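Why should sequence recovery work at all? Because a backbone constrains its sequence more than one might expect. Tight turns favour small or flexible residues, buried strands favour hydrophobic ones, and helices have their own preferences. The token representation captures these environments compactly. In the example below, the structure is given first.
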């Protein structure tokens, strides 16, 4: 039998003051036998649903006319900005990294924007979510490397500059991506817990100030995470053989 319980989810403003690293993941909203959907997964679905809805409402009436909607203008500005940053970071003129960067940036950004809702705790304040985002980047690295340089080109980077560096290069690739998820988790969790603690002493004013500051730092974290994903994914490129000009 399926059981549904939203009581703890709606009581997060009070529960957030004593919440620990794993207690938020322990809030079961939907449960069927040994299978359950916790609050972290549920909030992640809410974020993805909101992003999908905004994208659909913005793109359902795209126009190339002189006057377009403000939503389309804002979306185009965001895409063009992230496209420019992605191309400059990867040193590539292609848009192959844009979809990944856009998805990561929008998800983390919307999670930060929704922190102004008192009972909403961002999924990125859970280690399971940030590690899942890091896993996406970890899988994207060999995908783009093999796509651009082939399997040999991808494997060659582990023995550069000398074969003796093979163990170090393997650990470096794993832990660099792991550090991305851990950094994002630490920044998001510290902001949530600090605001929750201050709300117990100075209601309304302190939490609002901290949430505003957290929105700024969270937006920067979204930008950094997306660009680091592009940097790691574009670390292996196709070798360009210089042309020999003969006279």
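From this structural description, the recovered sequence reads:
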């Amino acid at each position: 039998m399926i059981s549904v319980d939203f009581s703890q989810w709606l009581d997060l403003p009070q529960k957030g003051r004593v919440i620990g690293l794993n207690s938020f993941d322990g809030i079961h909203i939907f449960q069927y036998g040994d299978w359950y959907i916790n609050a972290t997964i549920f909030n992640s679905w809410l974020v993805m649903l909101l992003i999908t809805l905004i994208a659909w409402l913005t793109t359902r009436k795209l126009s190339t006319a002189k006057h377009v909607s403000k939503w389309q203008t804002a979306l185009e500005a965001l895409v063009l900005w992230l496209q420019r940053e992605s191309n400059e970071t990867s040193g590539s003129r292609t848009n192959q990294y844009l979809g990944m960067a856009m998805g990561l940036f929008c998800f983390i950004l919307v999670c930060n924007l929704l922190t102004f809702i008192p009972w909403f705790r961002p999924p990125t304040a859970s280690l399971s979510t940030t590690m899942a985002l890091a896993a996406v980047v970890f899988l994207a690295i060999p995908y783009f490397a093999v796509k651009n340089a082939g399997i040999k080109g991808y494997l060659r980077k582990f023995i550069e500059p000398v074969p003796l560096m093979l163990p170090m290069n393997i650990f470096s690739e794993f832990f660099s991506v792991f550090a991305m998820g851990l950094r994002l988790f630490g920044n998001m969790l510290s902001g949530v817990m600090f605001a929750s603690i201050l709300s117990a002493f100075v209601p309304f004013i302190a939490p609002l100030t901290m949430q505003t500051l957290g929105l700024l730092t969270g937006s920067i974290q979204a930008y950094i995470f997306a660009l680091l994903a592009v940097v790691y994914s574009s670390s292996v490129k196709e070798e360009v053989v210089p042309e020999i000009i003969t006279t």
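A few observations help interpret the result. The beta strands are 2-4, 28-32, 35-38.
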